[in-house]
Amino acid sequence: MAAGNRLALLGLVLGAGAVLAAGLGSSFLPPGRVVAALAGGGAPMDSVIIWTLRLPRVVLAVLTGMALALAGALLQRVTRNPVAAPSVLGVTDGAALGVVAFLWIFSDDANALTVSIHWQPLAAMIGAFGFAALVALLTLLDPGGRSPLRIILYGVALAALAKAAVTLMMILGPIYRANQALTWLTGSVSAAHWSDAATVAAGLALSIPALVALRLPLRQIALDAESAAATGLALGRTQAALLSLSVLLTALAVSQVGAVGFVGLVAPHAARYIHGQFAPGYLVSTALIGGLMVLGADTLARIIAAPLELPAGALTALVGAPIFLWLLLKGRRAHG
To answer: Which segments cross the bilayer (predicted)?
Structure first.
C-alpha cells in the first residue's frame, strides 16, 4: 500500500474512532446522530451534548496523543535509541512535577488557585525543560562518554527523583493538594475544555514550520555522529533544536492532561512498522497513531467500569505495553 493510502487509512480510522467516542456516554448517540450534530443539524440536544460535553474531550485526547507521539519520535531520532521517550528520559515526570508544584504552591485553603490557571502550561514547561537540561548536562559532564544508554540511565534516575518529589508533596501537603497532584500522576482527559484543546492545537500548529524546516536534518541525524557531520549537519545545534521541540510538545500535553505515559514510546515504533521511518509522512503517521492511542485509552476509561471513570494514563500503558512487546517480537523475527 502506498504511503499516501496508509496515511488516509489512519486518518479514516482516527475519524471513525472520534465519532464513536463522541457518541459514548450516559446517553448513547449512534454515529448518524453524531455526524448530524457535527454538521450543524440533528436535534438541538444532540448538538449540546456533542459540542459542549463530549467533543472537547475527544479533541483534547487526540491532540495530546499527537503531541506526545511526535515528542517521542524526535527523542528517538536525537538519541538514536529506540527506547527513548519523554517518560523514559524524565521529561514527562519533570513536566508533571512542574504542574504539581504549581498547584501545591498556589492553592489556598479553599482549594482554589491564587493565580490564573493559564500559568499552568508555563509551570509544566519549566519542569520539563529543567529535567531535560539536567539529563543533557549530566551526559555532557560524564567522563564515560555520551552513549545513548547513559542518556537513558540518567533519564530514568531523574524520572525517579521527580516521582519522589511529587510523592513528598502529596504526603506533606493538605489533602486537597494531594488530590490535585494525583490527577497529574495518573493522567486524565476528563476535565477537558475547548480552551485546553485550543492551547494544544496552537502549540502543534506552531511546531509544524519547525518540523518542516528540520525534515532534512531529521534524516541526517539518524546517521552516526561522524557520518552526520560529514553530510554538513551542525550536529550540536540540530540536537538542541529537536530536543527543545520535543520538550515543548511534552510539556504542552502534560500541562493539560497530566503524565500520560507510553504514547511517545509506542507510537513511533508502530509508525515505523506501518509506514517506515524514512518514508514521506512518517511524522504524520506517528501523530495519527498517538492520537488513536490516547483517544482509545480515554474511550475505554469511560466505558470499561461505567459509571466510574478510570484514568486514561493507566490505560495507555495497559494498551501500549502489549503493542510494544508485539513490535519487539516482530522486529526480532524480521532480523532472525
So the answer is: 55-75, 87-107, 119-140, 152-176, 241-267, 279-304, 310-329
Peptide bond into 307 cis (omega under 30): yes
Residue 214 DSSP symbol: T
Determine the Cα–Cα distance for residues 29 and 274; give it in Å rounded to an integer.
32
Kindly state the DSSP code that residue 111 receives in the 8-state scheme.
Answer: S
For 94-119, what is each residue's pLDDT tens digit?
888 888 888 888 877 777 778 887 78
Query: Distance between CA 266 and CA 117 in Å, rounded?
Result: 31
Q: What is the pLDDT of residues 187-199, one digit of tens each?
A: 788 878 899 999 9
Number of domains in the chain: 1
Q: What is the pTM of this model?
A: 0.88
CATH number for 21: 1.10.3470.10
- Largest Cα separation within the chain, whole Å, is 67
Q: What is the DSSP track for 259-285? A: ---SHHHHHHHHHHHHT-TTSTTHHHH
Q: Please determine, for residue 25, whether its predicted confidence score (pLDDT) is greater than 90.
A: no
